[in-house]
Design brief:
421 residues; Cytochrome p450; three-stranded antiparallel sheet; five-stranded mixed sheet; 17 helices
Length: 421
């Protein structure tokens, strides 16, 4: 009993040291954690799994992260709601569990059903293959971030019915707005202003598309279905609501796929054995094995470190454990999904690249009420875009700096690869 108390006291003292370290090195630490969060997450998982510092809660262990994300009654998506509202309107990602959320997500599930995904796979595969073949014909490297942006942008035109006035504009709008809503936690005015400009261009474009489609008939894409559903009061969204929901879908469509695909390819290029088996899977159309490689690569290099919530009421996270922590009502709460996927208490040998882990170890699409709406479309796109590259012989980084992953803010900007024709 005495030893147990001594250990608890030691843990409390170390936890206090961690808090002081974070507090005193706040500015320097913030920059370092943004670029290299894993060491701090590892420290927190061990010594202070739920850290309350400067009015913010940081949750780092797998079970606790899932608890926060799955408890939508206690933890709100309010941190995203204001920016979502100002840029797009009342989209589901900025709504908590309420009548409007239930109505809108039900309508969107009818308009963009999972049953569409198999039929879209051929389009994605052909598009990705054509872009890779174009680079091969010119005997030049291909930029993975460009490939991974172009494919979902073209799928948005095919499936959502929103190709943009041009592809570059659609990509730029979605990247800008996603960054402000989900990444701009410091509320950098330059990032917000850029997103606001994007929104003022995207909304009129969508309004014109909606008006044109109403005059010329619906169609079998998501927009066409939403317009057809206006005939039934139970499923009718106004034109303005349709535009809002299309904005929300677009903002989550291009940036997530582009970032995840590029980071996964980068991880495979660093691991020759994993790259070889992933390429074998791609060439033999062993899609399950290919997906497993990519999901494991994404676990080690996820597109973001976590998700924000706000405590709606006083809530004890990890109640009944030695690290049970009261998060007061109103506290912004960061659920560190990246840390959770490296939690050795749940994920065996978490720093090893290991194909075949159970799906629940992967939190790429979040968890709970706001698990990514487009997860089935993205789970189809990411492997098929990667497959177009991985099928090629002698896939490798381009020589010099061109073959090194470089980011522009939260997004991969360059990663050039070469391959044989």
């Amino acid at each position: 009993m005495s030893i147990h108390k001594d250990l608890e006291e030691f843990a409390r003292r170390i936890g206090a040291d961690v808090e002081r370290f974070v507090r005193e090195g706040k500015q320097e630490l913030a920059q370092h954690v943004t670029e290299h969060p894993q060491p701090l997450f590892a420290l927190l998982r061990t010594l202070k799994p739920v850290l309350l510092i400067h009015g913010i809660a940081i949750v780092t262990r797998y079970g606790d992260v899932v608890e926060v994300l799955s408890n939508d009654e206690a933890f709100s998506v309010e941190p995203y709601a204001g920016k979502m509202q100002s840029l797009a309107g009342d989209f589901i990602l900025g709504l908590d569990d309420c009548a409007q959320y239930e109505r809108d997500i039900s309508i969107l599930r009818l308009a963009a059903p999972r049953a569409d995904i198999p039929a879209l796979a051929g389009f994605v595969s052909e598009t990705a293959d054509a872009l890779v073949a174009q680079a091969a014909d010119h005997e030049e490297p291909i930029e993975v971030p460009e490939l991974a942006k172009r494919v979902p942008a073209r799928l948005a035109g095919r499936w959502l019915g929103t190709p943009g006035p041009d592809e570059d504009s659609l990509i730029a709008w979605t990247l800008s707005m996603f960054e402000d809503i989900f990444v701009n936690v410091k509320n950098d005015p330059q990032i917000h202003d850029a997103a606001a400009r994007s929104a003022t261009e995207l909304r009129p474009y969508l309004d014109s598309v909606i008006a044109g489609r109403q005059l010329n008939g619906g169609g079998g894409d998501v927009l066409g279905r939403l317009l057809a559903m206006q005939a039934n009061p139970a499923t009718a969204l106004s034109d303005a609501e349709i535009a809002t929901n299309l904005i929300g879908l677009l903002v989550g469509f291009v940036p997530t796929v582009a970032t995840a695909t590029t980071l996964a390819i980068d991880q495979l290029l660093d691991r020759p054995d994993a790259l070889a088996t992933a390429q074998d899977a791609a060439r033999t159309d062993d899609d399950a094995t290919l997906r497993a490689h990519l999901w494991e690569a994404m676990r080690l290099a996820p597109q973001g470190p976590g998700l924000l919530r706000r405590a709606q009421r006083d809530f004890v996270v990890a109640e009944g454990t030695h690290h049970a922590t009261l998060i007061p009502a109103g506290t912004p709460t960061f659920a560190a999904t990246q840390s959770a996927m490296l939690d050795g208490a749940v994920v065996e040998d978490p720093h090893d690249f290991r194909v075949g882990r159970p799906d629940h170890h992967y939190l790429h699409f979040g968890a709970g009420l706001h698990e990514c709406f487009g997860r089935f479309a993205n789970a189809m796109q990411i492997p098929l875009i990667a497959k177009a590259l991985l099928r090629r012989e002698n896939l490798a980084r381009a020589p010099g700096d061109a073959g090194r992953l470089v980011k522009n803010g939260p997004y991969p900007a360059t990663l050039a690869v070469t391959f044989d024709r």
